[in-house]
Amino acid sequence: MAQIKVEKNVGGIEGLCVITPAVHGDNRGYFMETYSQRDMEENGLNITFVQDNQSMSTKGVLRGLHFQINYPQTKLVRVIKGAVFDVAVDLRKESKTYGKWYGVELTEENKKQFLIPRGFAHGFLVRSDVAEFCYKCDDFYRPNDEGGLAWNDPQIGIEWGICGEYRGSASAQGYTLHDGTPLNLSNKDQKWNTL
């Protein structure tokens, strides 16, 4: 019996999936399968993952929007502590949804996972004090193969829930979360261009 529920083509974007695992709990805690190749294949998702990654970030950190140039990766992402708003942007030139984005709240409570196929830019904003973020990739990381897009590209129009006015660059200066937490981006992520 499958231990996951798969919502396919979320936001009307072919290939994007939100996966909700079955969580078995009682007064001792809970148990869930975080990944089952059999369950994925039963849902038509035939992916061979080769690398697991984990990051920790503090509130207000925005990582992205990142993509791989020559060696694209499918990613299966989830949060094991805290909460993030996770976003994928369709960069497949032949796609009818090119440039369209979809976002999902991933939290330690909802335990949802977001499957992002090859050909998408990806990023997330940390909404909790701390977030630990895990993801599987179907290809290995290759240095010097990373591209990116401005997180605040007005043409894409991602609704991050951030206060501040677009001033023509990806700079984090002047942007905050609604509670006043300053937006925190890497130097590299503040230099990406628009679509």
Structural overview:
This protein is mainly beta. It has 1 helix and 15 strands, in the order E-E-E-E-H-E-E-E-E-E-E-E-E-E-E-E. The strands form 4 sheets. A 6-stranded antiparallel β-sheet has the order 1-2-10-7-12-5, with no helix packed on it. Strand 3 and strand 4 form a beta hairpin. The longest helix is centred in the first third of the chain and has 6 residues. The chain is globular and about 50 Å long. The model has no long low-confidence stretch (mean pLDDT 96).
Distance between the termini: 43 Å
Helix share bin: under 10%
Order of helices and strands: EEEEHEEEEEEEEEEE
Computed structural class: mainly beta
The main pleated sheet reads as:
6 strands, antiparallel
Structural topology:
Layout: E1 4-8, E2 17-21, E3 24-26, E4 29-31, H1 37-42, E5 51-58, E6 62-68, E7 75-81, E8 83-90, E9 101-107, E10 113-116, E11 120-126, E12 130-137, E13 146-148, E14 162-163, E15 176-177
Question: What brief labels describe this structure?
Answer:
single chain; 195 residues; mainly beta; 6-stranded antiparallel beta sheet; 3% helix; globular
